[in-house]
Amino acid sequence: MRLRTHLVRMTDQDVWRCAREEIPEHRAVLVELSAEGESGWGEASAFMTATYNSETDTVLDRLRAVAPQLAEADPTRPEDTWRRLGPLLADCPFALAALDVAGHDLAARLAGVPLFAHLGLPDPGGRPSSYSIGLDTVDVMVDKLNRTPGWGLYKVKLAKADDLDVLRALRAHTEAPFWVDGNACWQPRDLFEVLDQLPELGVIALEQPFAVTEVDGQRAARERCPVPIFADESVTTPDQVRPAARVFDGINVKVLKAGGLTPALAMLRECRELGVASMLGCLPESSAGASAAAHLAGLADHVDLDTVALLAIDTGPGVRLDETGHIRLAAGTGTGFRPDWSSPAHLTTERSVR
């Protein structure tokens, strides 16, 4: 396989904020693997760069280093390529993920089938996604909700667990349930004081309320919380699923954090085996990454792939969510993603690595 890389930059319709950070733009490396006249596409976002070693320059360097192995890899066996590259890119999971996604996309295109069919998964078309309402003033958060009426689930970012005025203001404009995300920034005492009020506000789940190290607080919260608590930052790879199942009710699986479609698929399957609820989530990504993740949606209990609905500038057409948040796969083989080279998201000409 031949590797090419492209630098891209996306922006959202609104500046993305959560309790942890503010993201005015999304930079990423678009990865292209080619063989036999076809190309597969993956994406490595420059997200939480200190945690995931995902600066674009770092990702490019690491991709160049494994190009010789890619040149000799069988394009029809992406799982084998992932197993060979995994030890080499263990400290750079987004680079590994982008290569694995591109490899699976390429294999499906060479086979002439959609990615979900190539993986032996159910057709995810029509599955509903949540819509994320990023942290802002209450008026702005209400406006975001009102711009997207009719969705079946809203994921609400809260700076503190006891910021229930935000939920009350949103509740006045929708009957849809809320999934509330703390992004690992809440304090246990704040959550414990408001637990009993969550059901009456239509909250059906909490996501990663506390820091990864706050295991005792999470264990206590699970015992007292009237709604399920899902892990996000606490679980990134398959080996963390089973331990997390002892302190969380569910797990948010993200392809980039996991290191690719291969491990993300294993995580979703293990959740089913353990009887642990699952959400298929996303990071700030373009249609290149989201289109691949969408093909796993038939295996997840809940879906949060709204990154494509939040974007103002995208890298090209791919998966879309309709006016009520249901998945509409792009036509064609593989993920269905196609780069739009006229988009302002594309910053550089391709870099080819032989």
From TrEMBL:
Organism taxonomic ancestry: Bacteria, Bacillati, Actinomycetota, Actinomycetes, Pseudonocardiales
Name of the protein this chain belongs to: Mandelate racemase/muconate lactonizing enzyme C-terminal domain-containing protein
Organism: Kutzneria albida DSM 43870
UniProt xrefs under Gene3D superfamilies: Enolase-like C-terminal domain (3.20.20.120), Enolase-like, N-terminal domain (3.30.390.10)
InterPro entries reported in the protein's UniProt record: DgoD-like, Enolase-like_C_sf, Enolase-like_N, Enolase_C-like, Mandel_Rmase/mucon_lact_enz_CS, Mandelate_racemase_C, Mandelate_racemase_N_dom
GO BP term, pick one: amino acid catabolic process
Presence of the UniProt keyword Ion transport in the record: no
Keywords: Metal-binding
Protein family membership: Belongs to the mandelate racemase/muconate lactonizing enzyme family.
Alphabetized Pfam families for the sequence: MR_MLE_C (PF13378), MR_MLE_N (PF02746)
Record SMART domains: MR_MLE (SM00922)
Keyword Glycosyltransferase: no
Occurrences of domain Mandelate racemase/muconate lactonizing enzyme C-terminal (ranges): 138-228
